[in-house]
Amino acid sequence: MEKRFEELEEKLAYLEMASAELGEEIFRQQKEIDALTKAHRTILERVEVLQDSAAETAMETSEKPPHY
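Above: the chain's sequence. Below: its structure in token form.
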């Protein structure tokens, strides 16, 4: 009976360790997801600014000079 308790305690200790490691990994991954999400938003904003700038440039260059 004592041996059975020791085996159960050993398994419980292993499961607690594995659970802690998984929790740490989830935390690390969430930080990485947050950083990637922020970078993605920044890139989208930059693309939008560049598209607006390109559209304005296209409109300006498509106008004919007054001497035409």
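The mean pLDDT is 91.
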